[in-house]
Design brief:
heterodimer; A: 116 residues; 47% strand; B: 113 residues; 5-stranded antiparallel β-sheet
């Protein structure tokens, strides 16, 4: 079956602009996660959805970052007034913890965001 | 604070040899650990996981060992192949409650033919 997909694969924007990053989780996965990965570092947690609601948004760095998952499937990560420091690979993962009982997270290929 | 770290940032092995990648964690409350493999330009790929009620788990060519006494995790890859070349991350989290995973910085494994 299809894995986690993310669009776009690459996004180049100018400082101060607004961007949206999309994640399509594995069908039937109720949990969805966003992580950010800087060069040479491990992924860093941003936010976690269980169904439509954000169960943990403690990793969002500031109020310029926001994510939604209105129908419990596709999620959009939104970044307002982008800054050069936002440049990173944004990873999405999903898991079927409620059915498998495990927190095994499957990752998408990521969106590489470059803020000029 | 919580952290997951790796002892060796780079590891170079000969094709056919066994590889061992190590990881230390600091949160004794973590009860679930995962190893991921990440190739250049791709997202992390699940390799194997282990719960804290186990000390060893085997997969295909891979074995994960967990030593809770010293908070140490290792990934053993048997008969390492060129296709195993990648960055390997360990991550810790909760088993039943879901939620975030905390990743270490990664170890780059290079396999020489």
């Amino acid at each position: 079956g299809a894995g986690v997909s993310q669009t776009p694969s690459n996004k180049v924007t100018e400082k101060g602009k607004y961007v949206e990053l999309r994640c399509d989780p594995i069908s039937g996965h109720t949990a969805l996660y966003w992580y950010r990965q800087s060069l040479g570092q491990g992924p860093e947690f941003l936010i976690y959805f269980q169904g439509t609601g954000a169960a943990d948004d403690s990793g969002l760095p500031n109020d310029r970052f926001f994510a939604v998952r209105p129908e419990g499937s596709v999620s959009t990560l939104k970044i307002q007034r982008t800054e050069r420091g936002d440049s990173a690979v944004y990873l999405c993962a999903s898991s079927s913890r409620l059915t498998s009982g495990r927190n095994e997270q499957f990752f998408g290929p990521g969106t590489r965001l470059t803020v000029l | 604070g919580e952290s997951v770290g790796l002892h060796l940032p780079t590891l170079s092995v000969q094709e056919g040899d066994n590889s061992i990648i190590n990881c230390a964690y600091s949160n004794s409350a973590s009860d679930y650990f995962i190893w991921y493999k990440q190739e250049s330009g791709k997202g992390p790929q699940f390799i194997i996981d282990i719960r804290s009620n186990m000390d060893k788990r085997q997969g295909q060519r891979v074995t994960v060992l967990l030593n809770k006494t010293v908070k140490h995790l290792s990934l053993q890859i048997a008969a390492t192949q060129p296709g195993d070349s990648a960055v390997y991350f360990c991550a810790e989290g909760g088993y039943n409650q879901g939620g975030k995973l905390i990743f270490g910085q990664g170890t780059e494994l290079s396999v020489k033919p």
